[in-house]
Automatic annotation (TrEMBL):
FAD binds at V237, W547, H548. Pfam families: GMC_oxred_C, GMC_oxred_N. This is Glucose-methanol-choline oxidoreductase N-terminal domain-containing protein. One of its GO terms (molecular function) is flavin adenine dinucleotide binding.
Amino acid sequence: MSSPVEADVIVIGGGTAGLVLAARLSEDANINVLVLEAGLDQKDDPRVKTPALWPGLVGTESDWGFVTLPQEALNGKQLPLPQGRLIGGSSAINGMAFIANSQVNVDAWGKLGNPDWNWKTLEPYYKKTYTLTLPSEEQQKQLGLEYVDRQTSGFEGPLHASYPDAIKDPVANAWIESLRSLGFPMSGDPFSGNAFGGYINAATIEPVEKTRSYSQTAYYEPIKDRSNLRIITGALVEKILFRHTDPDEDIVATGCQYRNNGISHTVTARQTVIISAGAFNSPKILELSGIGSHAILEKHEIEVLIDNPNVGENLQDHVLAGLSFEVQDSINTKDDLMRRVPAALGAAMEEYKTNRFGPFTVGGNYSSALLPIPDFSNPATGKSELLQVLNLIPESSEDSFSSDLGSFVRTLLSNPHEATGGYFTYPAQSDFKGSGAGDEVLRTKFPENYITVAVSLLHPLSRGSSHITSSDVADSPAIDPRYLTHPLDVELLARHTRYIESIVASPPLASILKPGGKRSPGVPDDLRKAPLEEVKDYVKSAAKSTWHPTSTCAMMPREKGGVVDSRFRVWGTTNLRVVDASVIPIATRGNTQSSVYAIAERAVDLIKHDLVST
């Protein structure tokens, strides 16, 4: 074992949140920051830089390669859960959608027992993270961006967010207009915290060069030469080191041990250790370090320092289902790119290199909607159907957090202006029946061209877990999200999926589809005419992850199921923190990326205050 290295602050994980912490904390020249990242620097990899190439990173050395346990409610299907293993973390391999959270969601975090956590305190940090660039007035009109509020959106942050060049994309405008005709125009700026309806979401793409904007390019590259900041790559953290002299006092993190090229090293933290390793690796590191369930740690012969069975529990993820529809021959899609047709790939690459235009400038989805269950607004049957659905949520539970989560979802369902489904579309077919391994989520199996409309359940009641399988850091955890195990989740996802039929049948979107065209195999001709039980069977077979895992180190009181307090300190320690998606106690409304950046920015201010206080 090599001789120890010292730093004031050790950040474990150079990902989305980790690089925000490193950049902001090192603004103080008196704070020495060391980042340990298990992956490598891949900023020059075209799959990282070029928005459309992001699926090529899934299942590679840039991805931790996590896979769920067989999911009982999904007919035993196992699903991949990509997490970035490189500088920038998941912000370097995701689809780049930049989706706003809701006010009621953040307020609910505070009501769990987290003082000063509400929309008012977090909103400034959302705005602090990004700079939004609007397209030309012509494109703004085509994309229906009249809802963008310059007072609400961010215009001074390091991260770049922009909109797609949709001049050649007839789907984007049709999507907006069809939802408007159904009574769901975007009600306001999404970043106001109080908006719902159909809209075009921004993406973390630099507006001029059309390259990915992420934590490495936004936060790290501009300040990487600071003398008080260092990143060690290829550093796989094995455990946190502690000092525990008084059994009646909280333990103190003194550093950590990591493995690099097969050699173990130790680093010493003079002030604090921050775990920022993601929804699966953060609880894994805690458990390997002796913080977790007594039963799990003893099983793997790990000394129990803090018996907290909440570590690794409360896993939440947005489960999705969807449908693919064949389009008119004149409609441009990405199916030829997914089929890797040489002529299509060559033309798209040339257009990107020459003009920074075309399909390679677009990441994942951008035609989106945040919608309630439309069924409950039906004047004739809505009230009775809503009551039936609400009865699926127990009024109380022995588990206080389950009661709180149920009450939160009950509030959302009872308010026609709050979304429970996150819809999105992309111009290619999708195999919903497969596992989703590798780039299968976008894999093209059929010769025709399609658009896909999918919907994710924003606030599931089904919760799972992620726990170590051995004391060896090289072994992946056992991840069991327990998708659709709560009957309410099946009910809601089926109703939202059924509504996709109404959206695509509405003009002008309907005119894009080929009359009598093909659709996802094994789906009834019109889900609106099928019994709801049949739709439920379909969503169980078609369900996939939206790849938004959260909550395995939840921020809330320990007796309620928490792992960290409202200042990110691990319960039972004085100076060990967790800052990443794992601390989010209730899943965000939509993609987690924007919230992880905002949470990290707020964490910096709290940590700086605590460092000064000590």
